[in-house]
């Protein structure tokens, strides 16, 4: 086996470092495949969020034909903290799911908010109900096809919650990704008179309509009408908290949005990717923020 000189090792080691750095840049820019796996391997995403083992409280589920969504059967879930049940006049957090999700994503196979809710209650946090509803993939705003998840939420789902005894006058909004965008959009429309607090994780923001995800908006006009960066005054009137992982492609836009809002909302930008591991990790702080506000 040939003997390598110290100079050769140094040169080779330097080349390896440069290659690794170049590779990391390409992965970060999305040029190389396996970005999420590479980020985790490089320690760019932080620890995974752990779902509490605390026994959750009671849940109710149902559905209704939503006129606002063109007659679509729309599922919903209400999660009560341990010690509370249907009819208790609790404040309520409405959780808006991300793209490809539905009302179950907040609980069964995604965020497991009922477990975090129960753990917070066991730690002495105020009792707050959490409710979720199907919004489809329409980014929580009116669409040219006639579907309007925003109107469904306000005109159909909130009255449903009221009819079940929940105090929609003490309303919080929570969401991740598409749902985080929706939570801020709905909050900026309803204002602080109806929305006490908003907690948004990894807000799905694009700088231009051309760079937006396919199907997120119907046109450049639709994008402009629902662009959060043009709603900074309305967002500044809200009691809001925005978080995003620094390995998330949406992080630069989320940070810029926070800097443009006056007064600035609470915010947290720490290690994390656009995934369940990050969203579950920040969920306790997000829910604690909402419970305290409600």
Automatic annotation (TrEMBL):
It catalyses: 2 alpha,alpha'-trehalose 6-mycolate = alpha,alpha'-trehalose 6,6'-bismycolate + alpha,alpha-trehalose; an acyl-CoA + a 1,2-diacyl-sn-glycerol = a triacyl-sn-glycerol + CoA. InterPro entries: AB_hydrolase_fold (IPR029058), Esterase-like (IPR000801), Mycobacterial_A85_antigen (IPR050583), TAT_signal (IPR006311). Keywords: Acyltransferase, Transferase. It is an enzyme of class 2 (transferase). Its EC number is 2.3.1.122, 2.3.1.20. Belongs to the mycobacterial A85 antigen family. This is Acyl-CoA:diacylglycerol acyltransferase.
């Amino acid at each position: 086996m040939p003997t390598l000189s110290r100079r050769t090792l140094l040169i080779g080691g330097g080349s390896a470092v440069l290659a690794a750095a170049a590779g990391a840049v390409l992965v970060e820019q999305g040029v190389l495949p396996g970005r999420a796996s590479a980020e985790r391997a490089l320690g760019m995403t932080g620890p995974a969020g752990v779902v509490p083992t605390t026994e959750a409280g009671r849940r109710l589920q149902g559905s209704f034909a939503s006129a606002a969504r063109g007659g679509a059967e729309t599922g919903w879930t209400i999660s009560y903290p341990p010690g509370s049940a249907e009819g208790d006049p609790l404040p309520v957090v409405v959780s808006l799911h991300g793209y490809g999700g539905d009302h179950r994503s907040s609980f069964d196979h995604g965020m497991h908010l009922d477990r975090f809710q129960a753990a917070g209650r066991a730690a002495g946090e105020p009792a707050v109900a959490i409710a979720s509803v199907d919004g489809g993939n329409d980014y929580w705003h009116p669409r040219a096809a006639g579907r309007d998840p925003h109107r469904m939420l306000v005109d159909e789902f909130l009255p449903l919650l009221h009819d079940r005894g929940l105090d929609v006058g003490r309303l919080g909004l929570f969401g991740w990704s598409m749902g985080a965008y929706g939570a801020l959009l709905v909050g900026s429309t309803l204002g602080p008179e109806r929305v006490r607090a908003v907690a948004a994780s990894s807000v799905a923001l694009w700088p231009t309509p051309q760079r937006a995800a396919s199907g997120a908006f119907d046109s450049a006009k639709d994008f402009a009408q629902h662009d959060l960066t043009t709603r900074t005054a309305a967002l500044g009137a809200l009691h809001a908290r925005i978080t995003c992982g620094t390995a998330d492609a949406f992080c630069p836009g989320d940070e810029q949005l926070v800097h443009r809002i006056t007064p600035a909302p609470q915010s947290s930008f720490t290690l994390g990717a656009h995934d369940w591991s990050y969203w579950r990790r920040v969920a306790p702080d997000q829910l604690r923020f909402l419970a305290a506000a409600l």
